[in-house]
Amino acid sequence: MRRQVSSERAGERERISADMHSQPNAWSGSIVGMFVETIVLPRAEWERWYERLGYITSPPSALVSMIAWDSGDGHVTSVNVWDSPGAIADFFMERVRPMVEAEGEPTNKPQRHGEPLAFYARD
Description:
By secondary structure, the chain is α+β, with helices and mostly antiparallel strands. The chain is built from two helices and eight strands, in the order E-E-E-E-H-E-E-H-E-E.
């Protein structure tokens, strides 16, 4: 079964085209308008940035999802999904820039990957 879903997020239009597949509570498809980035940092540095940027305590409204894991080499890899490229710019100006000005840049900068081509999500 195919469903077309439209919604308003952060003043921008997003379209999700999704199919229900073999699992009754699972969706897959494509998302238009969202933006994906990744960052890899040493664990102590990631913990400092993560806490001060408030990903959990005060998540940015434009952050759709975030997942981070221990890469096994003393580093943490994080994937952030944003409403749009403009949302990342706003987040940078509001939260990241003041921290960079006070403490300097992180060891690695986020890698911006653009719009996702496909997704899978379970209800």
